[in-house]
């Protein structure tokens, strides 16, 4: 099958390589010029004009979009008869407009937390002064995850302080600020594929680790690692309290792809925080390990609205990001760019070990793995096991076999789940 993969900055490299390994003819497009060398040297056919490849992919092939922001194009291509997976314009709106997403959650019967949207830091500051409490600060849309902050002081002083700082040093990005009431519980996501008409494959449960440092400390990042597992129980409590309620809405917007809702759960139920109506990173890498079915036939079925059954493995997958400066503050200081650094395996890696390494901003040159981007989001490593502890041991054992100058990673992905959160989730009926 001919498969055209359309990527914003190369996130879908790992997926494209796995599709190529399955025997498909893959064309790989990257929009951002700074990431143009990502994927070079792997044997992928890189293209610079994705629309020029439409005749090649044809209506019998598959078009994969790896990020939000392409929804309108996806809808137009489907109307023209192409098989397209990744999302839809209505899906983009769920991610880019948090107020709209919260309105949809409420309309379809979910519990929601108090939230407000602001177009300036000044108005947001005045709101917190008049509504003292713990607030979570976010940017609207899929923009800069480092902007996010979860307030800790009961009177909101820390949130006001942060907003004053953003106003002074980052005011141009304060035109779209969301404040959500902070509630206490366990943060957990629930995801599943949707084919335009119905759910496809198992329910995915995931726990993200957003903070930069172990123990949940430090600034927010796009993500440092995730615990993922599948569940085939249609009575899954979290799914039925949140994501499962959106079936009719997803039909309405002709959504075709992977959609996740991140929630806070506690003894009072599940509270959806935000939607990710696209492939999730690094959750997609965990899916590549959990899935037994080939990616090509599964994604084609999702795109075409057919009921392809996904064969999968029971157990836990841990995925850990290995990064380098300037991550998570990409582009802040170019003298610390990782561009051109090399990833060195310590000894010979087995095919099984290589399958658990998921390249992101990497190209191959003379048999070596070379960093091909400036963000510092270099690669991810996965571990799988029947228990979370087995997956934990495997993923960190493999990371120890890899070397990259100035590399860093969190060494506790999954520990809080194993030692604390799983007990609470079980008590409340969510696992």
Our measurement of the CA-to-CA distance between the termini, rounded to an integer number of angstroms, reads 39 Å
The CATH architecture of the domain at 2-91:
3-Layer(aba) Sandwich
Bulk shape: globular
What's the CATH topology name of the domain at 2-91? Rossmann fold
What is the gist of this entry?
It is built from 14 helices and 21 strands. It has 431 residues and is of the alpha+beta class. The relative contact order is 0.13.
Topology diagram in text:
Elements: E1 2-7, H1 13-21, E2 25-30, E3 45-47, H2 54-57, E4 62-65, H3 71-79, E5 84-85, H4 89-96, H5 98-107, E6 115-118, H6 121-130, E7 135-139, E8 149-150, H7 157-169, E9 177-181, E10 186-195, E11 199-213, E12 217-231, H8 237-241, H9 247-252, E13 256-266, E14 269-276, H10 283-290, H11 295-304, E15 316-323, E16 342-345, H12 351-355, E17 357-359, E18 362-365, E19 368-371, E20 377-385, H13 388-399, E21 402-403, H14 415-427
Parallel strand pairs: 1-2, 1-4, 2-3, 4-5
Antiparallel strand pairs: 6-9, 7-8, 7-9, 10-11, 10-13, 11-12, 12-15, 13-14, 15-20, 16-19, 16-21, 17-20, 18-19
Helix pairs in contact: 3-4, 4-5, 6-7
